[in-house]
Amino acid sequence: MVDAKKLARIFKLFSVEARIRIIQALKRRAMCVTELTSQLGISQEATSQHLRVLRDAGIVWFQKRGFHVYYSLDKKNHYCPIISQTITTGYETDCFCFAKHFS
Hints:
Layout: H1 4-13, H2 17-28, E1 31-32, H3 33-40, H4 44-56, E2 60-65, E3 68-73, H5 80-89
Antiparallel strand pairs: 1-3, 2-3
Helix pairs in contact: 3-4
């Protein structure tokens, strides 16, 4: 059974638009902070802070490659498919039809 409290904390993380955009970007491929900063149009410090929050929640993980650190979705987290599906198709999925009322 799904731990409702943990799932609620995870969904609370996505009340910040930048974090949703990070997940959307990382769903396509692993990226370093510099790439994410450029794509998101926010400061490197803000990008790093959002990644830390997502990493602490177990949503993303990182891997060092030379001088760069690459982030990707943590496939070991069993909530990742739910999160990925919701962020990608949340406005089209019956399960999250309430989202249509807030657009």
